[in-house]
């Protein structure tokens, strides 16, 4: 096997001063109904975005353990957002970054990653099992054999990913006087696990709501092709702290895109698929829990999604008609009881790898019923 030697890059540690310290915005936009408002942490305004926190943490942790040598290359799979974070961490700490994406990665994101100095490898077909994610990981393993001293952070299973969000939790605790409900998107499981524990030390009765994508396997739903990038997964990341969640919502692309556009028009702050999904669920939580303080994290901004979420031709081609978007979740008794094809909610959260499928005769609620607290808009 041919080896490839990547030229070391000079470190720029002053970049680390740009990490985090993002503002908190009050969002009162109708999503889609009037709602009393929630707080949104605007991580897209930080250099490298939200995942720069995790990227820096994973590389520093590996260096401290001797797993990542000075100037050695870093190789990781990405659907885009972590790639930006790793490009930031690579420049700050002096490591060449090699990213494995796929041909569904937006052209603008490919250009941006390369502009930041990352080497980008693209796989051109999904794996039969595990889809694009599995195909990217297979190519990643091939690259590890050709790059001397290369380090793979393995974001899905690396506890340093979780540890990187301690600063995010500390910022939220300092910016909020109280918090009742925290809404987190779930992909690798890093930021939900990283902030829920520290925040519950401040507010022990804090309720954690996870937001997943339809077609994602994280919480036990069947794997399906997913239009939304960065939300959900076709594998079961070990970083997901299933026991921490009080409930999970699955959101479809039509609902997420509609929420993104409503945010842009009504609050000026918006983002991509994950941002739209958590905003939708946060507004719902604020409606059904009157008087509760609700907060969420907007992982990125809108610029990456100008050709998708905010493009009318893309929306029409992919059936993202706001008229067909769900306006409230349906209740399902267990993640493996009913396949969620649109916005759905479940208050039974288990680890699909270790927990058995529940007995359907156990007297659970009837699937497909509206949430009892929602009422009429």
What do these coordinates show?
Keywords: Pyridoxal phosphate. It comes from Streptomyces apricus. InterPro entries: Cys_Synth/Cystath_Beta-Synth, TrpB-like_PALP, TrpB-like_PALP_sf. One of its GO terms (biological process) is alpha-amino acid metabolic process. The protein is of the alpha/beta class and 377 residues long. It has a domain of 188 residues: Rossmann fold, CATH 3.40.50. The longest helix is centred in the last third of the chain and has 16 residues. The C terminus is likely disordered.
Indicate the topology.
Layout: E1 24-27, E2 38-42, H1 51-64, E3 74-77, H2 81-93, E4 97-102, H3 107-115, E5 119-123, H4 131-144, H5 159-163, H6 166-175, E6 181-185, H7 190-202, E7 207-213, E8 247-251, H8 253-266, H9 273-288, E9 294-298, H10 312-317, E10 330-331, E11 344-346, E12 369-370
Parallel strand pairs: 2-9, 3-4, 4-5, 6-7, 6-9, 7-8, 10-11
Antiparallel strand pairs: 1-2, 8-11, 10-12
Domain Tryptophan synthase beta chain-like PALP: 18-300
Organism: Streptomyces apricus
Region (Disordered): 353-377
The backbone outline, from C-alpha atoms, is: globular
Structural class: alpha/beta
- Helix content estimate: 25-40%
| Rg, alpha carbons | 20 Å
| Distance, first to last CA | 62 Å
pLDDT < 50 stretches: 359-377
Number of helices: 10
* CATH fold field value of one domain: Rossmann fold
By DSSP, the count of extended strands is 12
CATH architectural group of one domain = 3-Layer(aba) Sandwich
Secondary-structure element string:
EEHEHEHEHHHEHEEHHEHEEE
Mean pLDDT: 92
| Biggest beta sheet attributes | 9 strands, mixed
Q: Strand order, biggest sheet?
A: 1-2-9-6-7-8-11-10-12
CATH class of one domain: Alpha Beta
β-strand percent reads 5-15%
